[in-house]
Amino acid sequence: MSETDEIGRKPGKNIGKIVTDATLRALKPGGTATDSLPGRGNGAIYFDCKPSGVVAAFYRYAIDGKRRKVHLGNYKARPRDTGRTLAELRGEAQRLALISAKYGDVAEYLAGQEAAATVDRIERQRIAEFNAARGSFDDLFLDYIESRRGKATPGVVKELERLHKTNMQTPHPAIVNMKARDIRADHILTILNPIWERGSKVQADRMRSFLVAAFNYGLTVESVVGRANSKVYGLEMNPAATIKVEKVSVPVERALSDVELRQFWETIESTEGVGPTMALLFKLVISTGGQRIKNIIETTWDDYDLDARTVRLIHRKGRGGQTMGRPHLVPLTDRSVAIVTQAKVINGNHPWPWTTHGKQPFVISSPTHAVVDWLDSKHATIEGQKVTSFSPRDLRRTCAQLMQKHGIDDRLSDLLQAHGQTGVVAAHYRNNPEAALPEKRRAIDLFDHALAKVLGEVKEQADNVVPLTPPK
């Protein structure tokens, strides 16, 4: 008699319609078993013992009279084996039976699902890569700063970097790390309101202007050919453009009185928080007749010719900025030469006279902070009265009014300060700055004489001017 299994089937033949774990563990290589699913036409689980002894399970069903199989996994004979238990295989087979009843060909349906999942995975990856490439608010502002290099003056770029750190990066890290396209007006207000509330109302307005410019840059930069930065921003609007900063009423007529000017001159060097170089900068601004402090800050030692007693300034007012500079040759008096000589002792080994560490010139806000320090000091009290607030820019107006009070012709005053120079005369002087130097020297000599009176170096007796120091 031939050998039979526990249910009377010969090895290698298809065993029964309902199987057990014992049945599957007893299968030999080449042996098969079928476990029919409940319900007519729902198919069955087909077990096939491979030469390795592993029992592979398939969901078997019929389409148009043809049998087809979908792999369910391997049968898990022991707890430490990999694969699925008989109960798990039956559960998965029943799920596929429902798919077969609804969609027909299970293999075709699963292939379609896998293809759709692949497409979805690729799309999610594409979106993730796109979002990774899409720049943050921080990226946008830094990108804008880089775009200003070579166009704006180094001082403006340095000021942008300072404002980025003090007004954005340090106090609002969560906002700056947001995607630029997700920034809304309320985020801009979160940045600007603290600046306004601490009393820096002009800075709040400037900060808003820079933010508007940065977002305007981001709206168009992706269309620029040859751009080094690969970040994209996908901006649809400028959130900063909708914000309005209440205009601050800044006094435009503030000029220091003679007493205030003398007090400032004599005490700025001894003011706590004001370094010696900054104090010399203020004195040079005053002694040169009120030159724009920003233009003097930007000078290098190459701009000074102490033998010729001149300093070459570059005026960059208007839209031309860095690329449309207008030279302005300023004569230096003995007083100014002495000031520059003192600065050379301090910073002669640096490219710029007006610097703290030699890495770059003062940022444009530094003189403002120095004036605030002076106003907060004991020196800003004269005869028991606090000096009214003023800014470094008011020194220019102070010098202009000083010239006017002492009868210096307005044309000479304007020429010395490079103020209102237009038309043919301006074109001539722009092409040849030295052409106006003789008249500027006459203006600066008259101004220095007026300044000497203010500083108490000379006094008037009737129509004569008498030096306080006896002649040598």
From TrEMBL:
* GO MF, one example: DNA binding
Q: Which domain of life is it from?
A: Bacteria
A biological-process GO annotation: DNA integration
Q: Which SUPFAM superfamilies match?
A: DNA breaking-rejoining enzymes
Q: Which UniProt keywords apply?
A: DNA integration, DNA recombination, DNA-binding
Residue stretches making up the Tyr recombinase domain: 251-445
Q: Say which family it is in.
A: Belongs to the 'phage' integrase family.
Protein name, please? Tyrosine-type recombinase/integrase
Q: Which organism is it from?
A: Pseudomonas helleri
